[in-house]
Design goal:
Layout (H helix, E strand, L loop, with lengths): L7 H15 L3 H4 L3 H8 L4 E10 L5 E12 L5 E7 L5 H18 L5 E6 L8 H15 L8 E5 L5 H15 L22 H17 L10 E4 L4 H12 L3 E7 L2 E5 L7 H12 L17 E5 L12 E3 L9 H9 L4 E3 L8 H14 L5 E3 L1 H4 L2 H15 L5 H26 L10 H19 L5
Parallel strand pairs: 3-4, 3-5, 6-7, 6-10, 10-11, 11-12
Antiparallel strand pairs: 1-2, 2-4, 7-8, 8-9
Helix pairs in contact: 1-4, 3-15, 4-15, 5-6, 7-8, 7-13, 7-14, 8-9, 10-11, 13-14, 14-15
């Protein structure tokens, strides 16, 4: 890849997967899979287009739009759209690459992809965001479809933007189909979709806790540190509270919110934060709230990890590379026993190395790490369930969707566990490597489908 421009985020994701496969017995048992990795590392298609739109002053603005259609061996390309000034091909390739294996772990018929634009919704009016969303979909519409590519929301793309884009697609293509997920509940959206990533993250960690404790422990009584304050963080917090945990932190791009009383961050505070996010306001607003300002401290420019005191469970749920190697050491010192990524590639490679080294050395007393491609797969799993409901012209109840989500996360955990035991044997009393299990299980499923369809041989 030396002839290509530097793509640090993608290179990190690729090396993380490749090193896991190389340090397992997978290539010994299936030497042909080395070629599969070489093929799977290159996207099937990358689409780049310009997006021109008119701001409120009547001036024409232009942005870059992207869709990385990475792999369709298991089904239509599936993955979110991100509107954020940091969007570039390296980030979208890393996200799309990870998405292929995450989607495979759900057990549903979905390929992997990712897209978006270097558009910044912050500081824009609702009218400007609507105009941009419509213009973006005009550029993307000819490349997607219910049986081709089914995008969803991601950072900067809420159900509101999905609605505007769906309307633009319907007008452009003259047909109603389940081409986007995360739709409104009364026009094709699935119940539990907004909650799904956060809920699924907690369900996955619940299985980790039960396995590690021989069924004796759960979230009850656990102190949980969470980063981020978007959908994933909010619903992970609410579900963990429902299961008896105390939430001790949330955060945003400006700093960290740390609970100062024994009740922790309550559901009322989570709902207050959700309202702030809808209004595109920062957590600093809480510092001026007479109702809540005495219940937390807000630390400007900080992530929560070194400020949250004693902690049992850690759920990075903001963005990539948000836990460093040094912070990983501090979390272990703080007593953390479980860490699972609600964000994609939330831990740096240094942090993962710290966690995996501790897992091997301390065995049953160690911290246990779960990668995002397994732990946060609940969101795309319910997107897959939304696709199924659209195809059948049906709508399932919240209870039905939640039960299916619980089953998918249970199967995902068991698959990661069994695959790790098969390909990366652990010492007596040592937790199996969930990062190895997730990588190998997801990759093997994609590689086998590609081989059957002649993508490599």
């Amino acid at each position: 890849m030396s002839n290509l421009p530097s793509e640090p985020e993608f290179e990190q994701a690729y090396k993380e997967l490749a090193s896991t496969l190389e340090n397992s017995s997978l290539f010994e048992k299936h030497p042909e899979y080395k070629k599969a990795l070489q093929v799977a590392a290159i996207p099937e298609r990358i689409i780049q287009f310009r997006v021109t739109w008119e701001d409120d002053k009547g001036q024409v603005q232009v942005n870059r739009g992207f869709r990385v259609q990475y792999n369709s061996a298991l089904g239509p390309y599936k993955g979110g759209l991100r509107f954020h000034p940091s969007v570039n091909l390296s980030i979208l390739k890393f996200l799309g690459f990870e998405q292929c294996f995450k989607n495979a772990l759900t057990g549903l018929s979905m390929g992997g992809g990712k897209g978006g634009a270097d558009f910044d919704p912050k500081g824009k009016s609702d009218n400007e965001i609507r105009k941009f969303s419509v213009a973006f979909m005009r550029g993307l519409a000819k490349h997607i479809g219910a049986d081709t590519d089914v995008p969803a929301g991601d950072i900067g793309v809420s159900p509101r933007e999905i609605g505007w884009m769906f309307g633009a697609y319907r007008a452009e293509q003259n047909k109603w189909e389940g081409v986007l997920t995360g739709k409104g509940g009364n026009w094709g959206g699935s119940l539990i979709r907004p909650e799904a990533t956060g809920y699924g993250l907690v369900y996955y960690v619940q299985h980790m806790i039960q396995y590690a404790s021989g069924g004796k422990e759960s979230f009850k009584g656990k102190r949980v540190a969470i980063s981020g304050s978007g959908n994933v963080a909010q619903y992970a917090a609410l579900k963990a509270i429902e299961l008896g945990a105390t939430i001790i932190s949330l955060s945003d791009s400006k700093g960290a919110l740390i609970a100062t009383d024994e009740k922790g961050i309550t559901p009322d505070l989570v709902n207050y934060i959700a309202d702030l996010k809808v209004k595109r306001k920062q957590l600093t607003e809480l510092a001026r709230s007479s109702e809540y300002k005495d219940k937390f401290k807000y630390i400007d420019g900080a992530r929560p990890w070194v400020h949250c005191g004693k902690v049992d469970v850690v759920l990075p749920s903001a963005t990539q590379n948000e836990v460093s190697g040094e912070e990983a050491e501090k979390l272990i010192e703080a007593g953390a026993k479980f860490i699972a990524e609600g964000s994609n590639m939330g831990c740096t490679q240094d942090a993962i190395s710290v966690f995996e080294k501790h897992r091997k050395e301390k065995k049953g007393e160690a911290i246990w790490y779960a990668p995002g491609k397994a732990a946060n797969a609940g969101g795309v799993a319910v997107s897959g369930l939304e696709m199924a409901q659209n195809s059948a012209r049906l709508k399932w109840t919240s209870e039905e969707v939640d039960e299916k989500l619980k089953g998918i996360m249970a199967n995902c955990f068991e698959n990661c566990l069994a695959t790790a035991k098969e390909y990366v044997p652990s010492a007596e009393g040592e937790f199996p490597s969930l990062v190895a299990g997730g990588n190998i299980a997801g990759f093997s499923k994609v590689a086998a489908a590609m081989k059957d369809q002649g993508d490599w041989w």
